[in-house]
From TrEMBL:
Top-level taxon: Bacteria
Name of this protein: Uncharacterized protein
Amino acid sequence: MDSKVNSRHWDSHGVNLIPALWPALRARIGRDRKTSGKSDLGLGHYLDVALRSAVMDTDTLIGLHDRLHAERMGDVPKGKKTTLSLSPAAREKADTLLELLEAADFARKGKDVMSALVLNLLRTLEKEGPLPRPEVPPLI
């Protein structure tokens, strides 16, 4: 909704995730487009939600990294990058995330933390079930 109402404020931002997340994210978007009737859902919307809902606490962010590495038994591949439109709030959180990691001497781990955020979002959405069709109020 915000991307439509405030689209002029959304701007490009680089995103780097482990490669396996991109097709999983696209599959979820495809299902959500069908169930919600919102054919304009895109990758940026989901990354935006993942970032905006992230807790900007150094220990929490490092914990996300550590859990992802434990779950993958240390096998976390190089990332696949793209550029997506994100809201100002999400772009600010992305910058804060990297600053917090760097301040904690945990630089160059942003891809893993972002991947963990997206993975957690996908798992949460899976538990919640299909994205419902929004109820648009009548004009009159």
